[in-house]
Design brief:
Strand order of the largest sheet: 4-5-6-10-7
Order of helices and strands: HEEEHEHEHEEEEHE
Distance between the termini: 25 Å
Oligomer: single chain
Number of strands: 10
Structural class: alpha/beta
Radius of gyration: 17 Å
Number of helices: 5
């Protein structure tokens, strides 16, 4: 994502120091948040994605105009909006009144993304969204697909989040219960983001910050 933006924009990176998948809109308020400045425009934060946005917009880069969260390896579609740390970072920026985009890359079962191809697919979408007027109280949620082909220009489709829930299935393991739902077989409502993205197109959704 930094490579996709740095040619045309002044980019400041404020990123967590480890994986925070499915942490939701968690924020640290009762303990210090360690943060190491790695270069003039790069910070490594021992905190959640929301912590990163809060520190970035209040301390490290308060003049930031647009916050772009991601790129997350794995989809953030439908009800994932409630769980995703990547989406929460964009939502937090929108609460600050900033333009914000969350970007994720759905990963086909057993496959890894081609990040150079992802960059090529993402650039036109970013260009389009950044050229649009800002609608206060909203942010964009973008999910790249993972088709078998290498076409760099899959269609970008405006769509709403799928309202259907995920499969909830657990398997008993030594010491507890392990979630074993199949993300790739999740229900699809035609024309909504899950159906669009898993069908090989780029899902682009405008999300209101209230009620999410």
């Amino acid at each position: 994502l930094h490579n996709a933006l740095s040619d045309d924009h002044e980019v400041v990176v404020v990123a967590p120091d480890r994986q925070y998948s499915a942490c939701g809109h968690q924020a640290t308020t009762r303990a210090p948040i360690p943060a190491a400045q790695q270069s003039d425009r790069r910070w490594c934060v021992s905190g959640t994605p929301v912590d990163c946005v809060r520190l970035g917009l209040t301390r490290f880069a308060p003049d930031t105009e647009v916050v772009i969260a991601g790129i997350n390896p794995g989809g953030n579609l439908g009800v994932d909006l409630y769980m995703s740390g990547t989406v929460a970072a964009a939502r937090e920026a929108a609460l600050f009144g900033r333009r914000a985009i969350a970007i994720s890359h759905y990963c086909g079962k057993g496959r890894l993304p081609d990040w150079d191809l992802a960059r090529a697919r993402l650039l036109p979408v970013l260009g389009d969204l950044l050229a649009r007027p800002h609608t206060p109280g909203t942010f964009w949620n973008v999910n790249l697909p993972h088709p078998e082909h290498d076409d760099p220009t899959p269609e970008a489709v405006p769509c709403d989040p799928d309202p259907q829930g995920l499969e909830i299935h657990f398997e008993e393991q030594a010491g507890g219960w392990l979630y074993a739902g199949d993300y790739h077989a999740r229900p699809r409502t035609p024309g909504h983001d899950v159906d669009v993205c898993l069908g090989g197109r780029i899902a682009v959704s405008l999300i209101p910050i209230r009620g999410q």
